[in-house]
Amino acid sequence: MINTNFKESLHALIAPLGAIALTMALGFLLVAAISDEPVLAYRELLFANFDSLSNFALFLNRATPLVLISVGITFAFRAGVFNVGGEGQLFAGAIATTAVGIAFAGLPAIILFPLAVITGIAAGAAVGWVPGILKVKLGVDEVVVTLMLNTIVLLFTSYLVNQVIRDTTAYGAVSWKLPEHIWLPTIPGIPGATSGFMIAVVLSLVSWVVLFRTQWGTEVRSAGTNLRYAEAVGIAAGRRVITAMLIAGGFAGLAGALYVLGIGHRFEQNFSPEYGLIALTCALLARVNPAASLFTALYYALMLNGAAYMQISTEVPRSLVILLTGLLVLLMTARLTRKGSNNQTFDAF
Amino acid sequence: MDHDNILVLDGIAKQFGDIVALEHVDLSVRRGEVHVVCGENGAGKSTLMNILVGIHAPDGGKITFNGKETTIRDPLAAGDMGIGMVHQHFTLVPSMSVAENLFLGHHLRRFGIFSDRRAMVERAGTLIDTYSFALDPEAIVSTLSVGQRQRVEILKALVFDAELLILDEPTAVLTPPEVEELLKVITNLRDRGRTVLFITHKLREVKAVSDRVTILRRGKNISTHITKIVTENDIARDMVGRDVFLMGRQGQGVRTFGNNVLQLENVSITNSDGRLLLDGINLDVRAGEVLGVAGVDGNGQTELAEAIAGLIPIQAGTIRLDGADINNASVAERQEAGLGFVPEDRLDRGLSRNMSIAENMAATNYLREGILWRGFVDKGRLAEFTQKGIEQFDIRGAKPGLAVGSLSGGNMQKVVLAREFARDPKVLLVSQPTRGLDIGASEFVYSEVLSAADKGNGILLISSELSEIFALADRIAVIYSGRIMQILTREDADEETVGILMNGGKEQAA
Asked: Which structural domain range is residue A119 located in?
């Protein structure tokens, strides 16, 4: 049984790995066309992340929010909700954690840390709950709601960070620093790398078990693939959809909380290079599989940071990465179907 | 006499990889007849038709059309030769008008460039009148009913003078009254000199419409009969390859039943507009009994089933399961209390096609079958349970991990039955259980339903197929416009009485 599961997993990996390899090969041709030093550019893009421990730490820090948000989005997608609100949920979590951390700076870490994290999760979940309940109770389209909520939350946090908790001694729209005693420790041996990454890894694996090996997960997926069927076999389908959206928002909120606690140590209005949208792509590329989205998130983090190094060392612009990731999405969606493999179930992994 | 044959096929063979779709098919179609090709799912009917319209090339054999041996390269060539095909799935542009669809790709032109709208509408109108199709040539296709769209499909084939018209299972998507209309249309086409090749596996349609019938089984033509002098049983035997038992219990004598296991007392449902969908329904089903609810689709059957299953609330009345009031019980609680539910549309409420066979079959059985351990799914037990169901219900080509959507309709229905029968429910609510199934699969469903009744389960069978009701039911309730018109014992019921009641008790227009 374990053996076949392993084989299935391996099988599921072949297609995305092939697409990534093909993307990189096509990308290399592009770089060769515009640069005199294509090999150097590509080396920077792919391997500069591993040149030093500090680069590696930045890479892990970049991946942490992506993993968390895309795992959360997986719950939403599996429940049939197309949640594009990761960004808003992330910001809600980040600002809530920051606010609590600053407001109750005097509390001891053992109380304040969990309080700050839970507030962040709750804020993200609350933002996720709105489209969930609107969809289930009133049939409101979740794409519209989540997109609008992104703007609402982003502008609201902008107001807060500029008008209420702004660090007047610093440049830019940033909040006061969080008290040092609730900062998240770094990973032992990798200075600068947030231990939030380890939390993200554990949660992505736990999420896989929850979605594919528990009754609750089965019920969520039933509701997501065919709501009317789920109702007919006695599943409280609407409730599962709403819970899945709470979890999706909670994960993004946690990503925001861990970012401010472990990486930024304060709320910065421009801390996110659209993590929410990139995570959405990660989740889709991972075929809505939380364990696989761990890898797609790492890949995106690698590309995002690698592009910066590439731009510094060669004249290749970092926007090349946007092109490459676009190409990847294209190749992944235009999936090649081998003869006889179309019987494979979507959920078999 | 060879010259009155419009089409002669001689030893047509086709293979896809290792699978032999057609082994050796001979077929001759006379000019001006309605010729039915029938066979079980997978007998090769569709492959044969696809060869005739040039979608597939045959591996062997000879096609003679209008006396000349031909090869049909592609669908366009088939059209030019005068072979028109009406596919099971429509190929219309919903946002365009009927006339525009008819001339799509062959617009009539004025001065060689401008589309001549008026001429097209006129010609469409003439055509519609010729065949008395009752269509507005300027109506937008998306506003038409399924039956009307099909007539547009047929016109599309006729507009360029198809001599031979092929209809591929045209009734699969139609409601019973629309089927009646279509059969009239086909007769009308023949009367106007067209030749019709009609693909179906429904015996009633064969008898109703055809002059001759050819039966395919496993890629070979088994026999050709003149329809008038062949019985439905003979056709069925040739299709399945053995004697078919679709007669149910007829003539098995008096049976005895137990207590009431399902009771409906004055159950009413009003929709949001205040219209009564169910109007004071009183029904009871006894243990071991099959109560058939007959009626034309859309007279409240869907609401009746969903109300009993707990999917929609009732506004008045009481539903009792084994004596206990279940009005306020959830779907899951009703299942726990002993209700099994086979929904009318397996792809709507019955199954989740992207999930595995195992997950679909286990959906209502996790706890009872010990597949769960503290909320976790025991994959070993799940596979075991599914394998048992697959064997018991003879679900071909099934493995627990496959997506249920990869199965054929009949095998999908068996997954639903396996799930619902596994609980040995006191009451089985079975809605349209053989819709879209071929004879072999229908026979299997019938025998499962009857053996469940023999075990003492009470069965409420909702069906719009009269033959099904008469084959299975011990008593027959006729539903019309949300009301139960009358409940008859089978001894007292005959098709004519039930048919009149199904139309509201009025005499049918002759």
From this structure: 36-336
